[in-house]
């Protein structure tokens, strides 16, 4: 795992999409900047993520169909979903039963169904 400086962000490129992304990262909360970005940085859930396990093989082969993560706050559900979305061609749709209302849940599920065909 690469060492990270908690209080600074590397200087952004001069212009272009990477500059916009870097500017957004500088303004992101510390917790968001420290969030793991790769499976190698992700800690926990090794029973499903270690090399050779089904979920790990599906991620590496970009063969993710649909996943629903369930569990208490702070266990890495959103972080793992974002890592999977970044590593694969998957569409990441964040829905929370606590934060989303029924209409938002239906829209998200309908959008997923439409993408499937």
From TrEMBL:
Transmembrane segments: none annotated. Residues 1-30 are annotated as: Disordered. GO terms for biological process: DNA recombination; DNA synthesis involved in DNA repair; DNA-templated DNA replication. InterPro entries: AAA_ATPase_RarA/MGS1/WRNIP1 (IPR051314), P-loop_NTPase (IPR027417), RuvB-like_N (IPR008824). Residues 34-97 form the RuvB-like AAA+ ATPase domain. Keywords: ATP-binding, Nucleotide-binding. Gene3D superfamilies: P-loop containing nucleotide triphosphate hydrolases. One of its GO terms (molecular function) is single-stranded DNA helicase activity. PANTHER family: ATPASE WRNIP1, WERNER HELICASE-INTERACTING PROTEIN 1 FAMILY MEMBER. This is RuvB-like AAA+ ATPase domain-containing protein. It comes from marine metagenome. The lineage of its organism: unclassified sequences, metagenomes, ecological metagenomes.
């Amino acid at each position: 795992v690469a060492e990270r400086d908690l209080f600074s962000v590397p200087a952004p490129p001069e212009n272009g999409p990477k500059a916009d992304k870097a500017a957004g990262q500088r303004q992101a909360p510390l917790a968001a900047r420290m969030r793991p970005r790769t499976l190698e940085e992700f800690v926990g859930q090794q029973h499903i993520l270690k090399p050779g396990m089904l979920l790990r093989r599906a991620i590496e082969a970009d063969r993710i169909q649909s996943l629903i993560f369930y569990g208490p706050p702070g266990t890495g559900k959103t972080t793992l979903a974002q890592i999977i979305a970044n590593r694969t061609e998957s569409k990441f749709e964040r829905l929370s039963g606590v934060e989303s209302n029924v209409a938002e849940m239906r829209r998200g599920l309908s959008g997923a169904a439409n993408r499937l065909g």
